């Protein structure tokens, strides 16, 4: 208290014409005269003046009437304007990012042609919003050095939002404690390998309900796509985000050898670090591979899908040809065969299976068009004859039955509420269907194919086939070639039907036996 008093006395003594006789260096020592000295000071003109200035300053501070108040008001208004501008820019960035749209165009300047969606939305917003209208007016005049509409601020806003979303995801994962990882690798347009990482958790952030959610963390460049290289990248990413590998309870990848390998694959290396991180392959991708293996089971299967692809190629080559197809085929149109999603071939098979007569009529109409290209007419006639082949009709029925069953299981596996137990039951039922179809499916397919033959107005009989067997010629005996006649029906069953079902069953059991073991656990 004394130090404060001395400091106050010293300040006021400097403001007086006749300062107190107080030695600042030695302090106040005459304590017995303190009361008298304080009374003199309190009644002095300088004290009254300083006290009055103190009170007036306090009132001005409370009422906001200080000298710099106008400057503060200007600064606050300018700060609020920038907040409003950045708020609008951030919402534009968020809109474009959510809809996966490109930000920039060929120009980075305002009010120029083809300057991109970001600047275009800013210009459109300025037509109705006074804040953006004023901001763009200042930017065009050059009254503001930074207008925050350039490419750098776009990238910065994207990075800030990305970091914020990433932090929120990691917080939810840490709150859930246990998690599973889903990863896949693919090369981008620049031929660089990119690793996509997704985290699956039981989300506890909502107090009302508990949900199972998957969060995408991003794409990460990898230089080594081997099992060891990918494992090191995954561990590094998890450690970077503060996630312990010991809390991992599942891992899901595709069926690549570097991912699913039982010795050096990613799943095996993760299991060595944490035996509780059970590996479950992508069910949909596994079913695709099952069908892919089946299509290569025989020459008949390869030729079958070749005919379907030729049908689509023939009609889709020009608008006029497609018009002929639409005029004859009213309900289901021909579909292009997909190289990656093999179970999607059900659409191609279904269109021909249910409308084989209409497709044949369209082929004949195409071949009879006046001025038609001879090659096109020949292709149409050839395909028309192949559609009328009873072996093709039986193959059409068989493939439709198999693909239809696999497609049902594939779509069900992709549902959000699917669990591993239901998945195992579905796959087991699919295997049972294939086993039963292996026993009696060929006879049923022949019965159904007869209806298609009646629709095409052809005899439901197999064309007679001959097979010439070349007997090995010895140096001391003349060569004798034997001609053996085989039943066309039995030949189709042995060469096409049995390999198709056997390959499908073996492939499915091999790929999903591990999933069945996990289901039992």
Write a structural description:
There is one protein chain. The chain has 521 residues and is of the alpha/beta class. It has 19 helices and 7 strands. The protein has helices at residues 2-15, 34-42, 45-63, 69-98, 116-126, 130-141, 151-176, 227-240, 257-260, 266-273, 283-295, 299-316, 319-328, 345-354, 356-367, 374-387, 390-413, 420-456, 488-520; strands at 179-187, 193-203, 211-221, 248-252, 278-279, 465-469, 482-486. The strands form 2 sheets. It has a 5-stranded mixed β-sheet with strand order 3-2-1-4-5, covered by helices on one side. Helix 4 (69-98) packs across helix 5, helix 14 crosses helix 17 and helix 17 (390-413) packs antiparallel against helix 18. The chain is elongated, with a radius of gyration of 41 Å. Residues 1-11 and 14-24 have low confidence and may be disordered.
């Amino acid at each position: 208290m004394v130090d404060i008093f001395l400091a106050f006395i010293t300040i006021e003594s400097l403001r007086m014409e006749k300062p107190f006789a107080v030695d600042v260096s030695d302090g106040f020592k005459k304590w017995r005269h303190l009361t008298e000295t304080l009374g003199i000071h309190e009644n002095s003109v300088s004290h009254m003046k300083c006290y009055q200035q103190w009170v007036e300053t306090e009132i001005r501070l409370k009422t906001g009437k200080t000298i710099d108040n106008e400057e503060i008001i200007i600064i606050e208004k300018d700060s609020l304007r920038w907040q409003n501008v950045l708020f609008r820019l951030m919402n534009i960035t968020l809109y474009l990012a959510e809809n996966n749209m490109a930000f920039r165009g060929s120009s980075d300047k305002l009010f120029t042609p083809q300057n991109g969606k970001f600047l275009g939305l800013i210009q459109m917003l300025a037509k109705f919003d006074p804040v953006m209208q004023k901001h763009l007016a200042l930017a065009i005049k050059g009254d503001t050095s930074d207008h925050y509409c350039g490419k750098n601020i776009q990238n910065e806003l994207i990075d800030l939002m990305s970091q914020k979303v990433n932090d929120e995801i990691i917080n939810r994962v840490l709150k859930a404690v246990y998690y599973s990882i889903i990863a896949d690798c693919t090369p981008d347009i620049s031929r660089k390998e990119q690793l996509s990482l997704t985290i699956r958790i039981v989300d506890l952030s909502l107090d009302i309900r508990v949900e199972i959610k998957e969060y995408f963390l991003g794409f990460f460049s990898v230089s080594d796509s081997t099992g060891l290289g990918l494992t090191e990248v995954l561990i590094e990413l998890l450690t970077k985000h503060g996630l312990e590998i010991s809390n991992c309870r599942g891992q899901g990848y595709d069926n690549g050898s570097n991912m699913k390998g039982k010795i050096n694959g990613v799943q095996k290396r993760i299991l060595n670090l944490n035996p509780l991180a059970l590996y479950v392959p992508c069910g949909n991708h596994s079913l695709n591979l099952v069908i892919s293996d089946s299509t290569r089971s025989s020459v008949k299967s390869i030729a079958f899908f070749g005919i379907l692809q030729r049908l689509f190629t023939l009609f889709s080559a020009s608008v006029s040809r497609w018009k002929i197809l639409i005029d004859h085929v009213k309900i289901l149109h021909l579909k292009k065969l997909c190289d990656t999603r093999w179970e999607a071939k059900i659409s191609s098979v279904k269109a021909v299976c249910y409308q084989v007569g209409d497709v044949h009529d369209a082929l004949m109409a195409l071949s009879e068009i006046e001025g038609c290209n001879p090659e096109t007419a020949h292709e149409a006639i050839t395909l028309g004859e192949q559609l009328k082949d009873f072996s093709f009709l039986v193959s059409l029925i068989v493939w439709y039955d198999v693909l239809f069953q696999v497609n049902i299981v594939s779509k069900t596996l992709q549902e959000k509420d699917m669990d591993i137990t239901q998945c195992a039951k579905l796959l087991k039922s699919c295997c049972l269907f294939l086993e039963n179809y292996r026993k009696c499916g060929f006879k049923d397919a022949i019965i159904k194919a007869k209806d298609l033959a009646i629709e095409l107005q052809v005899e439901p009989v197999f064309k007679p086939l001959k097979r010439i067997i070349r007997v090995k010629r010895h140096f001391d005996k003349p060569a004798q070639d034997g001609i053996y006649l085989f039943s066309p029906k039995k030949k189709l069953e042995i060469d096409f039907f049995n390999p198709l079902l056997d390959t499908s069953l073996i492939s499915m059991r091999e790929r999903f036996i591990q999933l069945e073991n996990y289901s039992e656990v």
